[in-house]
Specification:
Blueprint (H helix, E strand, L loop, with lengths): L2 E9 L12 E3 L3 E6 L6 H13 L1 E4 L4 E4 L4 H4 L2 H6 L5 E12 L3 E13 L10 E5 L3 E6 L6 E2 L3 H11 L5 H4 E3 L12 H11 L2 H29 L4 H79 L16 H29 L1 H4 L10 H10 L1 E2 L4 E2 L5 H10 L17 H16 L4 H35 L11 H50 L4 H44 L8 E6 L5 E6 L11 H17 L9 E4 L7 H14 L2 E6 L13 H8 L3 E8 L12 E4 L2
Parallel strand pairs: 3-17, 3-18, 11-16, 16-17
Antiparallel strand pairs: 1-2, 1-6, 4-5, 6-7, 7-8, 7-9, 9-10, 12-13, 14-15, 18-19
Length: 731
């Protein structure tokens, strides 16, 4: 009967603050969904099962699995740590309850106690940790009263019964781990899957025993023949030839093993380089996006710096005239004072001129009369025709005529009439101020537009920074641990091509030289064995020896064929089931899926091909398609087993690479394979919605296959020491 998890509870475990009853998720047979945004407890939830099965957690900082004993200070809720006084203690733990069959219910509690020794709550040296004894309790379903289990072996069996160790890799997965569950390029990976599903190990053991028995039977026959007829040259030659063929076959099989290892290593390297190269390509895509964005950011930052530098100039630049802001009334005051200054200046100037040359300013003749010609005639005639009297040379009358004639020429440079004449100063001031007071009406608008420009530039810079940060985070998330991140594309391509060449060389040697030679040697060995058998019959030895050898030879050959048949049959069955699941998984997607094809290699590994309807290989599928392919094989491994699969699926972010169609197909398909599924996802989360789930989440909420749905919450903008995960049960 299937194991069904009834509940899981947390006590001060990461941000699940509080006692077990405060953090209990009730679960049912069927599909259970926990929806949570980043940081709301998905991975922490999953870590509870890592602790339960392996005494490990996944460190979110290093992305490495570490022993629980080395992670105590990270596991405990920061809020709980902060509230624990020095020399006081707290308990951190997880509790899982599950039923198996129709009789028993089990409770498993793993916990530790931490005593605070110092003020720094995040320092390991500030805490003393004591791992508590594993608690395992059992009750009959009709009694509902737990009784403790004390035997350590029995405790381990109860934990293993939840999900057997051999099936955890298919039933207990996190995000991208689905990609590594089964590696078809490694013979041992597919063999392990087949071993879990069939009795092939027994066939292998039987075949090995029969090989040993056959060899022993032949040696017995050989001894009898030599004892009875040591002179049988023909038989001795046949035996000698048989031994040579067997030695040659053994050598070729050794070569085959070596080349298979070379091929396996080259394929493994190629697969690793495939991932590295694929990620390098992804990083290049991000780099191609980041490069123009970084350039735009630099340009915007330079534009902003230039903008700031020019702001001060706008106070004194006549095109902006900001310094004139608030001086609107001063212009009118200046104009009035300037008019008064000009009037008084001219008064002083006029008075000064009158004082110095009264005759120039007081005469009764109109200006320019008499005319110059008439005045010259009067001077020449020494007679004034205006007043009709003489004006002899040297007399005052004569001198007056001369002065009148030369009156325009006497306007020489004026003498200063005040100590400090500010006419030019005020004139220049007015001229220089002209651009400023002409701009008075537009200064406020200019300042507002400048401020808007500043805000626009800042917003542009901030948007670019956020976009760059987002792309950089996405880029960093696809780095491959264990590889030189600075390894150049040239090195990757060179290594990749080298691996491909080694694969091609090994395959050519195996397929074109070694395998044909081995097949030929096997034919030769079969012929020589037939000859040995016929010679055996002509020798005077007991019949039982020959019959024993012949029977064991036939049995060994039959066992070898049976083993291969079981293996090939299971591969075909896996292919059949994988295609069924693959079609179900992608049925809600707009793109039509291809066909999954398994092809056995001479070294026993499997080529996992993806073909279109015409048998052509399909390349460049999306990450969602790639993961669906692998997940369909995982489901095939489970469904191809004749027995009912009795273990739940525990999955953290398995649909992170899926679109909406893939996600719907995923939830529909897992219900047909797993008796219970507990899936932790963020893709259904929607912050703006009242229920905190998107439209797909609401559709799944109504799906009868979905038995429970929770949404996790964390306080907005909370400090780490106040971070607490709470939940809402939607179903």
């Amino acid at each position: 009967m299937a194991s069904i998890i009834n509940s899981i509870s947390f006590k001060n475990f990461f941000n699940y603050y509080g006692d077990f009853e405060d953090n209990t998720y009730k679960l049912e047979e069927g599909i259970n969904i926990i929806v949570a945004d980043n940081g709301a407890g998905k991975s922490k939830f999953f870590n509870a099962f890592l602790w339960l099965f392996y005494d490990q957690i996944l460190d979110s900082d290093t992305k490495q699995k570490i022993n629980i004993k080395n992670a105590g200070v990270k596991i405990i809720s920061d809020k709980a740590k902060n509230e624990t006084a020095v020399n006081d203690y707290l308990t951190c733990g997880v509790c899982v309850e599950y039923t198996s069959g129709t009789r028993y219910k089990y409770q498993i509690i793993k916990s530790f106690t931490a005593t605070r020794l110092d003020e720094n709550i995040t320092d390991e040296n500030s805490w003393q940790f004591v791992m508590n004894e594993l608690e395992v309790n059992r009750t009959e379903l009709v009694l509902h009263k737990y009784k403790p289990v004390y035997d350590e072996n029995e405790k381990k069996k109860i934990i293993d019964k939840l999900i057997m160790p051999a099936f955890r890799q298919y039933s207990f997965l996190q995000g991208e781990e689905v990609d590594d569950i089964i590696d078809f390029s490694k013979k041992e990976s597919i063999e392990k899957a087949v071993e879990n599903l069939t009795d092939i190990k027994k066939y292998e053991q039987i075949h090995k025993l029969l090989e040993e028995f056959k060899e022993k039977a032949f040696k017995d026959v050989q001894k009898q023949i030599k004892a009875n007829d040591s002179q049988n040259e023909r038989f001795n030659n046949a035996v000698e030839e048989k031994e040579k063929i067997e030695q040659a076959l053994e050598q070729e099989q050794l070569k085959l093993k070596q080349f298979n290892e070379t091929l396996a290593n080259a394929e493994a390297e190629k697969n690793e380089l495939d991932k590295l190269y694929a990620n390098a390509e992804k990083r290049k895509e991000f780099d191609d996006k980041l490069k123009p964005l970084r350039k735009r950011l630099r340009e915007k930052q330079e534009e902003f710096e230039t903008f700031l530098d020019r702001i001060n100039n706008r106070f004194f630049d006549g095109n902006f005239a900001w310094i004139a802001l608030g001086f609107e009334q001063e212009v009118e005051k200046f104009r009035e004072l300037n008019d008064e200054f000009i009037e008084k200046r001219y008064e002083k100037k006029a008075l000064k001129n009158v004082e110095e040359n009264p005759n120039e300013y007081f005469h009764f003749l109109p200006e320019n009369s008499p005319d110059s010609v008439s005045l010259q005639n009067m001077i020449d005639d020494e007679h004034c025709y205006v007043c009709n009297r003489e004006a002899k040379e040297g007399t005052p009358e004569y001198k007056n005529l001369v002065k009148l004639k030369n009156r325009t020429k006497d306007k020489q440079s004026e003498k200063p009439f005040v100590k400090n004449d500010l006419k030019n100063f005020f004139g220049d001031l007015q001229i220089n101020a002209q651009p400023f007071y002409n701009k008075l009406d537009g200064i406020k608008d200019s300042i507002i537009k400048t401020k808007e420009k500043e805000v626009e530039l800042k917003d542009s810079i901030e948007r670019l920074k956020k976009r760059i940060k987002s792309l950089e985070d996405d880029r960093n998330s696809i780095m491959i641990a264990g590889h030189d991140q600075d390894q150049s594309a040239k090195d990757v391509i060179s290594s990749y091509n080298g691996a491909v060449r080694r694969i091609s060389s090994a395959e050519n040697k195996i397929n074109d030289i070694i395998i044909p030679k081995i097949n030929q040697l096997k034919k030769d060995l079969k012929l020589i064995n037939e000859e040995v058998k016929s010679l055996n019959k002509s020798n005077n030895i007991p019949d039982g020896y020959n019959e024993n050898y012949e029977v064991l030879s036939d049995l060994e050959e039959a066992a070898s064929k049976a083993k291969d048949k079981v293996f090939d049959g299971m591969i075909n069955l896996l292919e059949e089931h994988a295609n069924i699941h693959f079609k179900n998984l992608i049925k809600n997607n707009d793109l039509s899926g291809g066909i999954l094809k398994f092809e056995k290699n001479p070294n026993g590994s499997i080529n996992f091909n993806y073909l279109d309807s015409k048998g052509n290989s399909v390349y460049g599928s999306s990450e969602g398609f790639q993961r669906m392919k692998k997940f369909s094989v995982v489901m095939a491994i489970i469904s191809a087993n004749n027995a009912e699969y009795n273990y739940p699926l525990l999955a953290d972010a398995p649909i992170s690479a899926f679109g909406e169609g893939f996600t719907e197909g995923f939830f529909e398909a897992i219900g047909d394979v797993f008796p219970q599924s507990i899936v932790l996802v963020k893709e259904l989360y929607k912050q703006e919605d009242d229920m905190k789930i998107n439209e797909l989440g609401k559709r799944l909420l109504k799906d009868e296959r979905v038995k429970t749905m929770y949404v996790n919450h964390v306080p907005e903008n909370a400090e780490q020491i106040e971070l607490v995960t709470t939940k809402t049960k939607l179903k």
